[in-house]
Design a protein that fits this description.
With 107 residues, the protein is α/β, with parallel strands linked by helices. The chain has a single domain, classed as Rossmann fold (3-Layer(aba) Sandwich), CATH 3.40.50.10580. It has a four-stranded parallel β-sheet, sandwiched between helices. Strand 3, helix 3 and strand 4 form a beta-alpha-beta unit.
Length: 107
């Protein structure tokens, strides 16, 4: 079974990933709607990667944030908003290291 990528965020993020060919793209606003969709996605074993608007993450409930921080699977990746600002988040190498348990960039 292959794992899928979920994308959750605003219309601009969704449009970009739909153009890239992704099918599991969900348009939401910040707040409760985003939190519910994120909870659903991280609980679904079908998804190996969940891509979200990074600017949505600071507003989520601390318990959900802690759960995401401790997850090895799926990997939750925050991407910058349309303005290009990155507010917080881990380096992609750190996300991969956490998911796999070792650093793939080291020889």
């Amino acid at each position: 079974m292959s794992e899928r990528i979920a994308v959750i965020g605003d219309a601009a993020l969704a449009a970009g990933f739909r153009l890239a060919g992704l099918r599991h793209v969900f348009v939401t606003e910040k707040g409760a709607e985003f939190e519910e969709k994120l909870k659903s996605a991280i609980s679904d074993p079908e998804f190996g990667i969940v891509i979200v608007n990074e600017s949505y993450l600071p507003g989520i409930d601390w318990r959900l944030k802690k759960k995401i921080d401790n997850l090895a699977h799926p990997v939750v990746i925050g991407v910058a908003d349309i303005a290009g600002r990155q507010e917080e988040g881990e380096d992609i190498n750190e996300l991969i290291k956490r998911a796999l348990g070792f650093d793939v960039s080291k020889k």
